[in-house]
Amino acid sequence: MSDALLSVSGVEKAFGPTKALRGVSLEVERGEVHALLGENGAGKSTLMQVLSGALRPDAGRMRFDGMPYAPRTTREATARGVAMVYQEAPLCPDLDVAENVFLGREPKRGPFVDRARMHEEARRVTARLVDGGLDPTARVGALAPGDQQLVAIARALSQNPKLLILDEPTSRLTSHEAERLFAAVEELKQELGVVFISHFLEEVERVADRYTVLRDGETVGRGVIGERAMADVVELMVGKAVDDLFPRSERTRGDVALSLTGVAGHDKPRDASLELHRGEVLGIAGLVGAGRTELLRAIFGLDPVTAGKIRVGAYLGPASPAHRLAQGIGLLSEDRKGEGLAASMSIADNLTLSKLTGLGPPGWLSPAKQGRAAQAWVERLRIRCRAVEQPVRDLSGGNQQKVALARLLHHEVDVLLLDEPTRGIDVRSRAEIYAEIDRLAAEGHAVLVVSSYLPELFGICDRIAVMRRGTLGEARAVDGLDQHAVLVEATGA
Q1: Phi/psi at 260 (nearest 5 deg)?
Q2: Residues 6+ apart with CB under 8 A from 240
Q3: 463, 465, 464, 480: which is closest to 251 by C-alpha?
Q4: Which residue(s) pair with 223 in the sheet?
Q5: Which residues pair with 464 in a beta bridge?
Q6: DSSP β-ladder status, 193-197 and 163-167
Q7: What pLDDT sits at residue 242?
Q8: Do residues 219 and 11 make contact, with C-beta atoms less than 8 angstroms apart?
Q9: How far apart are the first and last CA of the chain?
Q10: At what angle do helices 175-188 and 145-157 cross, to 10 degrees?
Q11: Please, which residues bridge with residue 18 across strands?
């Protein structure tokens, strides 16, 4: 019998006719970081919900810390020593660090909260993650994303777990914040087991000791990090080889589609100038908070421009988002749930409602024509769905992102502003979105991409500009840059 900290064997879970888990097996040793890999929809989230007590399996056996394990609630799982930190941790931004760490479990002195003890304990537990700990009185909403992630992990650690599950913990972090997190995880594994879920394989190589791969609800591979090429691991994840993650068709740089001269907003950007040509992909690198998102919002007319000029083709002047769409500019928001999609509506509605022209006689909408138009985009972008009538909320993150991108293409935009277009999505979906970006550039579209993932920018872009503290630097050809130099420029180191 295995003496692993966690042993999962033959676990199954179905939702109606859909089998999310099909006899999954997993073993996590004490003192290791175990990477759980797989595409969106592979079963990772369902398995983690089973482990954390949020779901009960239909079949299979689990053992934890030498004893049978079958939690009926998350509270029961926590009591046994399993703690999970979700990708979007539910923090209370208006409460301070200590209040978030001990929310619902505040230490008491008689009938009153012992704030002095709570602050001391919060500083102690956050010191396990960063030298000196975090200020326990700091308001969480005012913290950087990296520190907010540490607060979420500290809350889990404050419950003295034996197994810590981290779900996409770096999806909103800068490279510096991610490195700090990796160092903390390296220390934590001396005391407990860690399950690490990430779509970024270089992170897996950096922090994990072993891995397990899920595909279509089944365990399809496991091994020791470094003993197998990552290309082979990707093939296990997607079921086929991904020969070229960053395709590059022949692109012909055309005339200027969008130009900025000294553009500034209320806070950020402070000074941004660039020329974006048809037939090119121009990337904007920088740290979280540098002003990259604000720049795209200003270009699209969502945020006010207080200084400078934005020229679209021959047009120079103020514009609203409706004007920008009419001019052929489309924005893909980094917040696809909050700003990019109407989650309760169908795929067809999300794809077409911004442009219903041609989908029926004047003043009317033909559901049949709408469905055919949506189906064409589903096929072009390989959106995995049951039907175009399916609600967008039922899709995986990667397929939701494809729907948001397809809406811009249906609107026939000529200039695409893409803000973190592959954040939080799996390798296959990323490869397919990269292929679509390449095709758009080859067709003569102009693409402006904001990304915190430098390999992505270097893989898909012709030129890269770095934004630092609201100021945009000169765009330079990718061939003359390296990732270290871009990072140094972004941090001012």
Answers
A1: -120, 140
A2: none
A3: 463
A4: 211
A5: 283, 476
A6: parallel
A7: 62
A8: no
A9: 52
A10: 20
A11: 15
